[in-house]
Amino acid sequence: MNILLIGGGGREHALAWKMAQSHHCDNLFIAPGNPGTASIGTNVAIQVNDFVGLKKCVLENGIDLIVVGPEDPLVNGIYDYFSNDEDTKHVNVIGPSAEAAQLEGSKAFSKHFMQRHHIPTASYAEFTLENYDQGIEYIKAHTLPIVLKADGLAAGKGVIIAFTHDEALTSFEEMIQNKQFGEASAKVVIEQFLDGIEVSVFALTDGFTYQIIGHAKDYKRIGEGDTGLNTGGMGCVSPVPFMDNAFMQKVEERIIKPTIKGIQSENLVYKGFVFFGLMNCGGEPYVIEYNCRLGDPETEVILPRLQTDLVSLLAAADNGTLEDVNIEYHAASFATVMAVSGGYPGDYKKGFTIHGLADAATIPGALVFQAGTTFNENSIVTNGGRVLTTTAQGEQLQDAVENAQKALSKIHFEGMYFRKDIGYEFKP
Ligand code: AMP
Ligand code: GLY
Question: Of ligand 2's atoms, which has the minimum distance to the CA of residue 233?
């Protein structure tokens, strides 16, 4: 099978690494990829939203399977583009239709969906310029903290947790009156704060049935002890100690099954990954958000932990046999630790040479997944905020974290920073 993977981050490096292990994978192309994926398959210099360029690549290389990494092209209709074209409709595209991708692309759409299907989530209301004054009254009467969310995609920055009413009112004005996130914040969802521990659960669906392919806990704050600004994710562990059978059963019965049933009953075309962003509130699971893709850096731990052949799984999602697949996991625990550029998530410099990539790979079982990197002549240099992540395994979760850090300690670039406390709350 010839595969085209779309994206160029750490998630895509991990997807490329996993798919290349399958005997079903003949040729793997990555658009645009990064220096990490270049060591696994063929990078093609096409951007993720250049559907015309991607179609040309699909036809030239006899692509049978397209795997879409990031949310942007999905919300922009990449599934529909390929499925509605006579030349490419035979290609198996992994990712939901644009309509179904609104589960991630519009907070209001996903909240309505959860309400219709009685899926536990924070209570909420939505506001635009038209009912702006009602929004102000709603905020004033709301308990603290208050969560404000830009309705549309805002590159992970559209959520504000306000601890005072003044802060909430200022953010509300910024989003709606001053269009802080452009059209994405023309509508704002205001919701109840959920107090608990976050966990991400991943499923693959064909729109009718599903398989759970892993779960992880992501450490989103820049500072140790979960302090400071939010980032795209600074590290992950999998499995998560509190995800025992009893909790997982609640997640499946109350959240995953009603979601897939809802997708089916509303005739949403959805063949792809579902990312359930959950909050464990005193043992009860609530949905914070849906994403219509895999997480980053969650993918960098869930795929190394998954034993099942991923390409076979994706084929099963296309040919109606997903229900029959057997999902198997490695017995070990996995951790990934992200190295970021100095200054991230604020301003940072790019172009610093990365040393020690080969040395890191000598740590037994360790993997390096590149994210914000690029080639500069004969070296690999930093090219983003989140630069790379090292994944390792261990008998216990803490061993996995230690091994991932051991691998990361072999790597160096100017300004490199990483959290040394990934998995801290699970220390015995
Ligand atoms: P989202 O973009 O919806 O994932 O939100 C970003 C982050 O904000 C989440 O990962 C949570 O850490 C936090 N968050 C979002 N909604 C809530 C909520 N209702 N209660 C508490 N924290 C939330
Ligand atoms: N790590 C969170 C995300 O991928 O959205």
Answer: 1
Which ligand 1 atom lies nearest to the CA of residue 288? 16
Q: What is the CATH number of domain 197-426?
A: 3.30.470.20
The CATH fold assigned to 123-192 is Dna Ligase; domain 1 (3.30.1490)
pLDDT for 174 equals 87
Pocket test for ligand 2, best of 199, 274, 275 (most atoms within 8 A of CB): 275
Hey, do 2-87 and 123-192 end up sharing a CATH topology, with the first three levels equal?
no
Pocket test residue of 104, 143, 161, 163 for ligand 1, highest count of atoms within 8 A of CB: 161
Q: What pLDDT shows up at residue 163?
A: 94
For a substitution probing ligand 2, which of 298, 303, 422 has the most ligand atoms within 8 Å of its CB?
Answer: 298
Ligand 1 pocket by Cβ (under 6 Å): 122, 147, 159, 161, 191, 193-194, 198, 220, 277, 288-289
CA-wise closest residue to 192 among 156, 230, 157, 143: 143
Distance 227 CA to ligand 2 centre (A): 18
Q: Each residue of 369-393: pLDDT tens digit?
A: 999 999 999 899 999 999 999 999 9
Instruction: List pLDDT tens digits, range 147-203.
Output: 999 888 887 778 889 999 999 999 999 888 888 888 888 888 899 999 999 999 999
Q: Where are the domains of the chain?
A: 2-87, 123-192, 197-426
Q: What is the CA(299)–ligand 2 centre distance, in A?
A: 9
Distance between Cα 291 and ligand 2 center (Å): 8
Please tell me the residue having the least CA distance from ligand 1 atom 12: 198
Q: Residue 156: phi, psi to the nearest 5?
A: 75, 5
Q: Are 303 and 239 in contact (CB under 8 A)?
A: no
Looking at CATH, the fold of the domain delimited by 2-87 is given as: Rossmann fold (3.40.50)
Q: Say what the alpha-carbon torsion angle 238, 241, 242, 243 is, to the nearest 10 degrees.
A: 40
**Which of 106-110, 186-190, 223-227, 393-397 is predicted least confidently?**
186-190
Distance CA 243, CA 221 (A): 22
Give me ligand 1 centre to Cα 365, in Å.
33
